[in-house]
Design a protein that fits this description.
heterodimer; A: 149 residues; alpha+beta; Alpha-Beta Plaits; 2 domains; 3 helices; 4 strands; B: 317 residues; alpha/beta; Rossmann fold; 11 helices; 37% helix; globular
Chain lengths: 149, 317
């Protein structure tokens, strides 16, 4: 295995830029992978954009190529209930200050759990084909469904 | 310890996630929902160790790690041992005054799948519980060895087909009952033992906080619906978990000090277990006429267990 090229490449992770990394078979016992540059004692109080991730942290990788369908978010209908945030398995719902901001398409795998747990009518998250344009999807958003009596 | 607010989801959502995305768990896996929730329950530093299983191999694929906390990569059976070792060392260094930041609160948590908790890591876990370290062990129970292709474990319930207990013309899948790990752990005299489910996020968060706050060894069994081996669509993870808790296949309850049992969730409408079984491919064969008796048996077991829980709650023994 040459340095910097990974067996995980074909699973959709990006190719590593850092040439100084060693292959897995060269790793010695007790090695530590640091998630952050420098002092990481207050990470719990830092939002993702304030943190200093190293290349070892999977935040810097992407699994976007796993998706065949993607969730599209409609801000106009959302009530910020945060159901999607708590049940997202991939930490891909961006919520800041009790507000839902959008979807992290680098880490979303397109499972569709967020759409299923969305309580609004019509849903403020819907699944579309990966190739479809987000603006087009928003333009054709379904209308409110009447409850069958 | 600094616990975070779980009054409502909006307040809970102001926490900053410490499990990063781009781990390699399957789409719709409940493992990461549970792990994220545990880490969002507290502001304290965490020392985490994972038994080998889906969670470990998917969150630490070299050269990446998805953990923003200290995390120890260890063997199949000994996450409990590793984390109790770390805890013992932490206490010793605190006593000797050699810690860099002695006032920083630290919690010790071990994760294991059902294979490593019910079977392979059982004596390690039992030993750690008996020694009485201050740690929390969380079992992510998906009822089979999902990481290696869905073999039968002692957590697999009756009637489920697995790759080593297959349903066919001569068999209806696994024939043995599921091990009652919660009762076994409560019998260790652990101060806090619970069974929780991710669809009831609030009771789960409360249980996690209670376990982290309680001094001594705590055990929590969590239901982790497995889209790959239970064979349902990834988007239905929460739906299937709802069916599991509402059919009482997975009752949600806690046991304090080995005797005080509290039921944490009583479904308004208890659904028949058929609904839960029908939602998953691994039980499909049970709906053939010759296997109907297995469904009846499962329902009978569930009813008996629920009766037992209610009686124990009432009797406080």
């Amino acid at each position: 295995m040459s340095k910097g090229v990974l067996a995980t490449d074909k699973r959709g992770m990006r190719e590593l830029g850092a040439e100084d990394k060693v292959g897995w078979d060269e790793v010695t016992k007790g090695v530590v992978l640091d998630s952050f540059e420098g002092d990481a004692s207050d990470v719990v109080h830092q939002k993702a954009e304030e943190r200093h991730y190293t290349d070892f942290n999977s935040y810097t990788a992407t699994v976007a190529s796993w998706r065949i369908i993607k969730p599209v978010y409609n801000r106009d209908i959302c009530i910020d209930c945060q159901n999607c945030w708590v049940w997202c398995p991939d930490t891909s719902i961006i919520s800041r200050d009790k507000q839902m901001l959008g979807i992290d398409y680098d880490h979303c795998k397109g499972c569709g759990v967020c759409v299923e747990v969305c309580p609004t009518n019509p849903k403020s998250l819907l699944m579309f084909a990966e190739a479809e344009d987000n603006d087009e999807a928003l333009a054709g958003w379904p209308q409110k469904e009447k409850k069958a009596k | 310890m600094a616990i975070t607010s779980i009054k409502n989801l909006k307040e809970f959502s102001t926490n900053n996630d410490r499990l990063e995305g781009a781990h390699l768990l399957c789409p719709g896996c409940a493992h990461s929902m549970i792990v994220r929730e545990l880490m969002n329950c507290t502001d304290d530093n965490l020392v985490i160790s994972s038994n080998t299983g889906c969670l470990e191999v998917s969150t630490a694929v070299y050269p990446y790690t998805s953990w923003d906390t200290s995390w120890i990569h260890i063997g199949f059976e000994n996450a409990a041992t590793a984390v109790t070792g770390a805890e013992a060392m932490y206490k010793a260094r605190k006593r000797k005054g050699t810690l860099k930041d002695p006032d920083a609160p630290v919690k010790f948590v071990a994760f294991g799948g059902d294979g490593s908790t019910y079977d392979i890591g059982f004596q390690w876990l039992s030993g750690a519980m008996e020694r009485g370290h201050d740690f929390t062990y969380i079992c992510l129970d998906n009822e089979n060895y999902a990481n290696t292709g869905g073999q039968r474990s002692s957590a697999t319930p009756i009637g489920a087909t697995t790759s080593t207990a297959q349903a066919g013309t001569h068999s209806y899948g696994k024939k043995e009952k599921k091990k009652d790990i919660v009762a076994i752990m409560a019998a260790h005299g652990a101060p806090y033992v619970a069974q929780l489910a991710p669809n009831k996020w609030k009771s789960m968060a409360k249980g996690f906080q209670k376990a982290l706050e309680t001094e001594g060894p705590c055990f929590i069994n969590t239901v982790s619906a497995c889209t790959t081996e239970w064979r349902f669509d990834p988007k239905d993870t929460i739906h299937v978990t709802d069916l599991a808790t509402d059919s009482l296949m997975f009752p949600i309850y806690e046991i304090i000090d080995g005797h005080e049992l509290n039921i944490l969730y009583r479904p308004k409408n208890v659904i028949p277990v058929e609904d839960y079984l029908a939602a998953q491919g691994r039980y499909r064969h049970l709906f053939k006429p010759e296997n109907k008796h297995v469904i009846e048996e499962i329902q009978k077991n569930i009813d008996a267990y629920w009766e037992m829980l209610q009686r124990r709650e009432e009797a406080r023994i």
